[in-house]
Prior knowledge:
The chain is of the alpha+beta class. The protein is built from 3 helices and 6 strands, in the order ααββαββββ. The relative contact order is 0.20.
Amino acid sequence: MQNEITYIDDTQVITSILKDYFDGLYEADVKKLRAIFHSDVYLKAPNLRRSLTEWLDLVASRPVPKQEKELYRFNILSIEVIGEQAMAKVECPILDNFYIDFLGFLKENGEWKIVNKMYCSV
């Protein structure tokens, strides 16, 4: 029973982090995004690799979806938690792209962080 409670709590925590991720993208809130990623994360797309700093610079320099009056259409497709690791699959329709992101999480020192992001526009 205790493992079920932990699983539900961890899923809720990851859901909350994903809400911050969506809000950070929608509002181009670099501070909010930086807080949910591990500092050594690399963001990966086909034929493209970016450090967290490179990606956040890009987010800060592009049009802000909220200011552009873009609809907020982010969606969690799945979350799977196994022990202190988790994977989330999310839809991120933003600006002129429709991204599917796979976000890898690790729980270290009692805190969940995104440690891997793979994404592509479909």
